[in-house]
Design brief:
12 helices; 9 strands
Length: 298
C-alpha cells in the first residue's frame, strides 16, 4: 500500500481530496501516514485527521478488503488514470475496478446509452450496426448497466468478443441492477470491467445515478444517445457530456413518439445526427478521436 492509496482512501471516510493534495504528495517526503496531514489542502480534511489519529488503520483495512476481492484501486498515480477526471471534478474521484484495467489494449471508449424501456426499433438498430463498428474502430463500449439499451450495448460487445466497461451507481459488492450478474462473467472473460466510484459495500441510491452518469460522460471520447425521453437519466448524461465538452451523437426517431423527444431536442440543439455505423465511423474520424490520453501523472 503506497501513500497515494492512503490519501485516496480518505475519500471513503467522507474527506475531500483535491488534485493539489496529490501534487503536494509528490513533492514531499512522507515517512508515515500521520505525516499526510501536512499535504492536505482542505481544512475539514485536516481537522478530520487531527481528530481521528488512527484514520490510516481504517484505510489499511479497506485496502485489504479490496485486495481479497480482486478489486483494483484506480488512483491519480495509476498509469491509466485519465487526465479528464482531474480536470472536470473539484474533488478527485477514486475508483475501484473489477476486471481488466481500462484501455489496457488501447480500445477507444465510447458511451452508448438510452432508455430502460427501449423500442424494438432501436434494439434492432443496435444489433445491425454496432458489431461492425466496434470491430472496425476497436471500440470499447462504455455504458451504465441499466436494463434496456445499456445492457443491450454490453451484450453486443460480449457477442463481438470485445471489452465493455460498466459504470455502477453502487459498490462492486452490489451490482445494480441485479440482472448484471447474468453477464458478469462474460464481461470479465472478454477483457471488460465493472467500475465504481463508491466503496465496495455501497448499495444503490437514486442520487448515485447522477454521479455515475457524470463519470461515464467524462470517461468517454464520444457519447452516443440512442433513445431518450425529454426528462430522463439519459438526458442528464447528455447534459454532462456537453458540460465537459465531450462530443455528442444522437440517433433520430419518430417525431410523434414521446419516447424520442430527448433525441429530437438534442439534434435540434446541434448534436451530431447519426443514421448508421458509417455515420458514426466518419464522425469518429472527423473529430480526430483516436485513443484516450493520460497525464504523465498528477
Amino acid at each position: 500500500m503506497n501513500w497515494f492509496d492512503y490519501l485516496s482512501l480518505l475519500s471513503w471516510q467522507n474527506c475531500k481530496i483535491t488534485r493539489k493534495d496529490f501534487i503536494n504528495l509528490q513533492s514531499q517526503d512522507i515517512q508515515s501516514p500521520e505525516n499526510l496531514i501536512s499535504i492536505v489542502s482542505v481544512l475539514e480534511t485536516k481537522e478530520y485527521l487531527i481528530s481521528h489519529k488512527y484514520w490510516w488503520k481504517k484505510a489499511e483495512k479497506d485496502y485489504k478488503y479490496c485486495q481479497k476481492r480482486n478489486y483494483q484501486l484506480l488512483t491519480p498515480n495509476h498509469p491509466v488514470y485519465p487526465n479528464q477526471f482531474l480536470d472536470f471534478f473539484e474533488n478527485t474521484p477514486i475508483f475501484l475496478v473489477l476486471g481488466e484495467l481500462p484501455f489496457q489494449n488501447n480500445f477507444l471508449p465510447i458511451t452508448f446509452v438510452g432508455s430502460r424501456k427501449a423500442d424494438e426499433l432501436v434494439l434492432n438498430w443496435m444489433d445491425f450496426y454496432l458489431p461492425s463498428l466496434i470491430k472496425e474502430k476497436q471500440i470499447c463500449i462504455v455504458s451504465g448497466g441499466a436494463r434496456g439499451i445499456d445492457q443491450k450495448a454490453h451484450k453486443i460487445a460480449i457477442r463481438s468478443q470485445k471489452p465493455t466497461l460498466c459504470f455502477l451507481p453502487s459498490g462492486l459488492d452490489h451490482l445494480y441492477p441485479n440482472s448484471l450478474n447474468t453477464i458478469k462473467t462474460a464481461i470479465l472473460d472478454n477483457g471488460g470491467a465493472f467500475i465504481s466510484s463508491f466503496p465496495p459495500w455501497t448499495d444503490m441510491r437514486k442520487s448515485y445515478f447522477h454521479i455515475r452518469n457524470s463519470f461515464m460522460s467524462a470517461y468517454s471520447a464520444l457519447v452516443v444517445i440512442l433513445q431518450a425521453q425529454l426528462r430522463s437519466g439519459t438526458m442528464l448524461t447528455a447534459k454532462k457530456s456537453l458540460d465537459f465538452g465531450v462530443p455528442l451523437a444522437v440517433l433520430p426517431g419518430p417525431a410523434l413518439s414521446v419516447n424520442w423527444t430527448g433525441n429530437l431536442q438534442l439534434i435540434y440543439d446541434g448534436a451530431y445526427l447519426i443514421r448508421d455505423n458509417i455515420d458514426l465511423s466518419l464522425l469518429i474520424e472527423s473529430l480526430s478521436v483516436t485513443k484516450p490520453f493520460y497525464i504523465d501523472r498528477v
